[in-house]
Every structure is written in structure tokens, then in C-alpha cells.
TrEMBL record, chain A:
Keywords: Amino-acid transport, Signal, Transport. Gene3D superfamilies: 3.40.50.2300. Residues 26-367 form the Leucine-binding protein domain. Belongs to the leucine-binding protein family. It comes from Bradyrhizobium aeschynomenes. It comes from the Bacteria. This is ABC transporter substrate-binding protein. Residues 1-21 form the signal peptide. InterPro entries: BCAA_transport, Leu-bd, Leu_Ile_Val-bd, Peripla_BP_I.
Length: 379, 332
């Protein structure tokens, strides 16, 4: 008798366990990012953005009634380690893979995720990543192949510059941007008057700026990280270079304005995704982030946050948790703020996994970002 | 070593080798990847162990040689060369470059030598990054094919692991032979007392250069395996950090011990993975563990074993002496 009761109990537990697995088990998502090493700022912003989004979604009952569970693994900013960690993550059969942020680490891991048929939502911005025909790879921000032509067009049409000095940071981010924009300049017949490679973490830009001065260009294009942007802006002001200064998110961000002070005034840039974007939802996100972590995130924090909401929107569109159909659903999907407010801006994904979203051209005026032009979504 | 001990050692090595072949059969891809990484790093550390542990020359350039090997394999195999041909060329290049790098070692010693080799390390990093025509610069080289060995493809993780572990086996045998040859004794003489070595007729100049050249070749071999293992190379993994890591592997494992690099690479590659349960703190725990180990035993893990064995030997010897003494006294 006792054994029958016991067996009954056991089967009840097993049955409820099975039922639980079907409806209520957490959705497992794996994140592999640069949590230490040279990319620690990138990776930790990305991770915190993810955690914030997961916390919000779980507080509201999860996706389709299931909670999200994210595991974080550190790639040490090393592609070899990233490969190991992604392999480990894939062996655990996650629903979706997030990261890494460095383009090199994305290149080494993307074939693994594609082979496993798992969708990878990453932070890399190098142009070539989405051009290799990988059907499982998605961006969270503009690739350089879509942001740089907009900047080049602005320099050509609005500034009517005939020669430009290009300053870039010698890593995959800076080099990638420099290569795309130089190609655009060639196409538009703009001369590159000076081509200056700088180091990540460089402190002194006196020599670079004096080269810019000697080249006397019509405009200066600056594509380095935030801290270095502030340093070079100060040096440019000190040496009295008067040519217009154009850049990207990393030239006109809030952090640069804080660090460079007056020297940031007049700097212009294309801004795709930044916590300074003149959009109410983005400002609200920034406040929530600052409340939780006590610092202002850079655009990587935003990218991590959006990655999770991409997962949510895609899953709700499918109406089920299906990792095999995920990539197909996300291709060509438009996520609107009217249905998913936390996607922050309407966004469309194309067949390559590239992103289409509104952008802005801003100028720093008296220590504040002022939007000069809104670059609409293409489709 | 007594006959009994020798048998024990042989049995133990057979068990370890069999374990390395059989146990990973059930490993998942991640486990195999990490073990392959361990084998590759062990080869590189063995090279440095020869230069540093046996010949006593401090080098911070081993990571650069791994880089030369990796880039050599990456560039040549993506242009259709077989990996074995790339290996041959890399061995020649690393031998020549290592030999040339040895020249400063004839003039400067210890930390001055470390600085010279550090400069070489930095120089190589800049070559990998800035000579885009050859190395594709910061973008790196992707889609590096894995080789076929005697007709067997090694594209899958398990066959490639066997390639790595097989290479490690061959290198270990070669090293074992080298250490026990007159060359190995000459290297050690160089480390212990260069002047005495010279007075005994050892050409210290040639052996110093040779130690650098052979050590560098092993770094290159490790690199040749590293490229198809990750199937992507970019300059960042071959910066000074790797040379420092390799130096740590040699010192932590036990510099100048044949098995030191095996344990050192285990600490450097596997320990951080085991500590990952601590999430954000795993690198701190790892660093603390290494510091504690080196405070406890500055001569590394095998230093502990060595101390234990030699104290046992001393005890045994003094016991023999005491017994002999009492016998002598009794006889008187």
C-alpha cells in the first residue's frame, strides 16, 4: 500500500515537473561578453543593460509567462577565450546567445552559433560581420556601413568640404570606421588631407593635432573612444584649429562634453544609439539605469538592454519559445514602440541581421547636444 | 632512482597518457577546446622552460613566437598550404629569429635581458597589427582551416584534440631526449655557473643562442596549433600579456622541472575555468591562488614535491648514517 502511495506521489511530482517544463520553466539565455581585459567597459555596460531589461521583464511576469534566466561569461576580451565560452554556452543549449561586443570575438564565434542553429544577438559594429551570409547573426546598433555614409554625405552636402583630416583609433572599431568613410570620401571626390592613426588610451594628442593643422583641411573627422575624444578636442582648441569637427556617437556623447568642457562646443556628429538621444523613452531608460547602477551608461548599455527586448518582441510575435524559428522570425521584423515601448525607437531588421532605425545629427552648443537634423528610418 | 620507483613512474605515465586519450571521448566541445588549449600552451611553456628553467635566460618574448607561429599557419593555410608545410617554415623562421634574439643575451643578463625581449614582444605586436598587407591588421584572419592528418580530417573537436595531444606527446619526447643529452647538461651548466661551464670547455655563446632558438621554435609550434584551434587570429592575444602568462606558467609549475610546464599550463588555462562559479570574482580568486602558491613555494608546484622528496632522501641518508655509526661504534 505504502509503495503504491509512494509511486503515486512520485508520478505526480514527475508529471507536474513535466508540465512545469512546458510552461513555467525559465527561458535560458547565455551572454558571453568582455567583462575583463581591454573591453571591460564595453562588456560591463552590455551586461548591466541586459540585467536591467531582464529584471524589468521578470517583474512583469516574464515572456509568455516564463521567466528569463541569463548566464554571463567573461571572454577576457580575447577571441580564443570567447570561443571557449561560446562553445560552453552552446553546449548548454540556450534559447538565444548574446554577445560578444568585440568584432574579432564575434567573427570567431558566429560560425559556432550558426552551426548549432542558435540566434546570436551581438554588439560588434564592423561592417563585414553581417556580410558573410550568416543567417543567425543580428546587430543591436548600426553597422559602420550604414552610419558612415550618412556622415560622409553630411560633410559633402552641408559642409561642402573638399579635404578632410581623418583621426581614428587603431583597433577594429576605429579601423573599420576609417576604412568605410575613406571609401565614401573617395566616391564623393573628397581628399583625405591627413590620415592619423592613434592608440586606445592615448594621452597626448599634440603631435596629431599639429599634423592636422599643417594639413589645413576643410573638416576634421574624429573616430576615437570617448576619453580620447575629450583629450583631442581640448588639444584642438589649444592649438586653435578652426575647421569643423565631425564624428560619431563617441565624439558628441555626454561623457565627452563633461570631460572636454568648452572644447566640445561646435563638435558635430551622427548619433544612432545613445543615451543622449532626444527621445523620451531613451531618457527614461537612462534614468532607470542610473538609479540601478549609479553611473550613466554608454551606448553598449543601451545595446544590451535592447537585445533582451528584441528577444521578447520576437518571442511574442512567434507566440511560442522556439529557438529554431527565432532567426527566421526576426529577419524582416519591425518592432514598434507602440507594441513594445521598451524597444525605445521603432526598429526593423533586414535579411542580413542589419538594423534600420532613426538617427540624428547633433551639434554641441554651450555644453548641450542640439539636434540639427533627424535622419529618418529608411523603411 | 631505484628500479621500483622507475617502474612506478612508468606505470603512472601510462595511466596519465591513457587517461588523456580515453576520458575526453565523452567530453563536450567546450571541454575538448579547453584541453586542446592546455596542450598548446604547454608546448609554448616547455619552450620557455628550456630557455629560462634550464639555460637560465629570462625571456619575455615567448608570446611573440606563439604569434609568429599562429600568423605563419594562418597566412599559409588560408592560401592553400598544408599545415605541415606551414609548420616547417615556422620552425625555420622561429629558429633563426630566436637565434638572433639570443645575441643580446650574450651581453645582458636577468632583468636587462627581460627588457630587451619585452621590446621584441612589443615590436612583433606592432608588426601583426600594422602590417595589414601581410596580417590583415586589426581585422585578423578568419576561416583558418583545420588540417587533415594522414587522410583523417580534424575539423571536429575530438580529432583536433588528438592532434594537439599527439603533438604535445612528440614535443615531450623530444624534450626528454634533449634534457638528458649532453646538450641538456650543457644548458644546466650554463644556468648554474656560466664561468665554470666555459672553463670546462662548453661553448657558452653557442649554447645560449641555441637555448633561445630551440625555445622559440617550441613557441612557434604552439602557435601553428593555436591558429587552427581558434580558427581566427588577431594581434590582441599575442601582446605582452601572453608572454607574461607563459612566464607565469613556467614559474608556477616549477622552473627547470621537466613536468613544470604541464602543471603551470593547467593552472593558467584550467584553474580560471574551474573558478568561474565565482562569477565576477573568478580572476581575483585566481590571482590570489597564484600569489599564495608562490609565497608558499617560490619554486612552483614541483618545488613542493622536490622539497618533500629531498627531505625524505636526507632523512633516509641520515638514518643510514646513524645505523652505520652505531655499527662502527659496536665494532670498536
Amino acid at each position: 500500500m505504502r509503495s503504491i502511495v509512494l509511486a503515486g506521489l512520485c508520478s505526480a511530482v514527475l508529471l507536474s515537473g513535466a508540465a512545469y517544463a512546458q510552461s513555467g520553466a525559465p527561458i535560458k539565455i547565455a551572454n558571453v561578453a568582455e567583462l575583463s581585459g581591454g573591453g571591460a567597459t564595453v562588456g560591463n555596460n552590455w551586461k548591466n543593460g541586459i540585467d536591467l531589461a531582464v529584471e524589468e521583464i521578470n517583474a512583469k511576469g516574464g515572456i509568455l509567462g516564463r521567466k528569463i534566466e541569463v548566464s554571463h561569461a567573461d571572454s577576457q576580451s580575447n577571441p580564443g577565450v570567447a570561443r571557449a565560452q561560446v562553445q560552453k554556452a552552446l553546449d548548454g543549449e540556450p534559447y538565444v546567445l548574446l554577445g560578444p561586443g568585440y568584432s574579432g570575438s564575434v567573427k570567431v564565434t558566429a560560425p559556432l552559433a550558426a552551426e548549432a542553429g542558435i540566434t546570436q544577438i551581438m554588439g560588434g559594429e564592423a561592417a563585414e560581420l553581417t556580410q558573410a551570409g550568416n543567417k543567425f547573426l543580428f546587430r543591436t546598433s548600426f553597422g559602420q556601413q550604414s552610419s558612415m555614409p550618412k556622415v560622409a554625405k553630411y560633410i559633402n552636402d552641408e559642409l561642402k568640404a573638399k579635404s578632410v583630416a581623418v583621426v581614428w583609433v587603431n583597433n577594429d572599431f576605429g579601423r573599420g570606421g576609417r576604412d568605410v568613410i575613406t571609401k565614401e570620401f573617395n566616391r564623393l571626390g573628397i581628399k583625405v588631407a591627413a590620415d592619423l592613426s592613434t592608440e586606445a588610451g592615448q594621452a597626448d594628442f599634440a603631435a596629431d593635432v599639429s599634423k592636422i593643422k599643417a594639413a589645413a583641411p576643410d573638416a576634421v573627422f574624429i573616430y576615437v573612444n570617448e576619453e580620447e575624444s575629450a583629450r583631442i578636442l581640448k588639444e584642438i582648441k589649444r592649438q586653435g584649429v578652426t575647421a569643423p569637427l565631425i564624428g560619431e556617437t563617441t565624439l558628441v556623447g555626454q561623457k565627452v562634453i563633461e570631460l572636454a568642457g568648452d572644447a566640445a562646443n561646435g563638435a558635430r556628429g551622427h548619433v544612432g544609439l545613445t543615451t543622449d538621444a532626444p527621445v523620451e523613452a531613451v531618457k527614461a531608460f537612462r534614468d532607470r539605469f542610473v538609479k540601478k547602477y549609479n553611473y550613466v551608461p554608454d551606448h553598449n548599455g543601451l545595446k544590451g538592454y535592447l537585445a533582451i527586448y528584441m528577444v521578447k518582441a520576437t518571442t511574442e510575435k512567434m507566440g511560442k519559445v522556439d529557438s529554431k524559428a527565432f532567426a527566421d522570425t526576426l529577419h524582416g521584423l519591425t518592432i514598434k514602440t507602440s507594441t513594445e515601448p521598451n524597444i525605445l525607437m521603432d526598429v526593423t531588421f533586414d535579411q542580413n541581421g542589419d538594423i534600420d532605425r532613426q538617427g540624428f545629427l547633433v551639434e554641441v552648443v554651450e555644453g548641450k547636444q542640439v539636434v540639427k537634423q533627424v535622419l529618418p528610418k529608411l523603411n | 632512482m631505484s628500479k621500483h620507483n622507475r617502474l612506478l613512474l612508468v606505470a603512472l605515465s601510462i595511466i596519465v597518457v591513457a587517461g588523456l586519450i580515453i576520458i575526453p571521448m565523452n567530453f563536450n566541445r567546450y571541454g575538448l577546446y579547453i584541453l586542446s588549449q592546455w596542450a598548446v600552451m604547454t608546448i609554448a611553456a616547455m619552450g620557455l622552460n628550456l630557455t629560462l628553467g634550464y639555460a637560465g635566460q629570462v625571456s619575455l618574448a615567448q608570446g611573440a613566437f606563439v604569434g609568429i607561429g599562429a600568423y605563419g599557419a594562418a597566412i599559409l593555410t588560408t592560401h592553400g598550404w598544408p599545415l605541415i608545410a606551414a609548420l616547417g617554415l615556422v620552425i625555420v623562421i622561429c629558429f633563426v629569429v630566436g637565434w638572433l634574439l639570443g645575441y643580446p643575451a650574450l651581453r645582458v643578463q636577468h632583468h636587462y635581458l627581460a627588457f630587451v625581449t619585452l621590446a621584441f614582444s612589443t615590436l612583433m605586436f606592432l608588426v601583426f597589427r600594422n602590417e595589414s598587407w601581410l596580417t590583415n591588421g586589426i581585422y585578423g584572419i578568419s576561416n583558418i582551416p583545420r588540417p587533415e592528418v594522414f587522410g583523417f580530417p580534424t575539423r571536429k573537436p575530438l580529432p583536433f584534440y588528438y592532434l594537439c595531444i599527439g603533438s604535445l606527446g612528440l614535443v615531450t619526447l623530444a624534450m626528454w631526449w634533449l634534457i638528458r643529452s649532453p646538450w641538456g647538461r650543457a644548458f644546466m651548466a650554463l644556468r648554474e655557473n656560466p664561468i665554470r661551464a666555459q672553463s670546462l670547455g662548453i661553448d657558452t655563446r653557442r649554447y645560449t643562442l641555441m637555448a633561445f632558438a630551440i625555445g622559440s621554435v617550441l613557441g612557434g609550434i604552439a602557435g601553428v596549433l593555436y591558429a587552427p584551434l581558434t580558427q581566427y587570429v588577431d594581434p590582441v592575444p599575442f601582446n605582452l600579456q601572453l608572454s607574461l602568462d607563459l612566464l607565469m606558467m613556467v614559474i608556477v609549475g616549477g622552473s627547470g622541472f621537466m613536468l613544470g610546464p604541464f602543471l603551470g599550463a593547467m593552472i593558467a588555462v584550467l584553474l580560471p575555468e574551474w573558478l568561474r562559479f565565482a562569477e565576477g570574482y573568478y580572476l581575483m580568486l585566481y590571482a590570489a591562488a597564484v600569489i599564495v602558491l608562490l609565497i608558499y613555494s617560490p619554486s612552483g608546484i614541483l618545488g613542493i614535491l622536490d622539497r618533500y622528496l629531498s627531505s625524505r632522501r636526507t632523512q633516509a641518508a641520515s638514518a643510514l648514517r646513524a645505523a652505520a655509526q652505531s655499527k662502527l661504534e659496536a665494532a670498536q
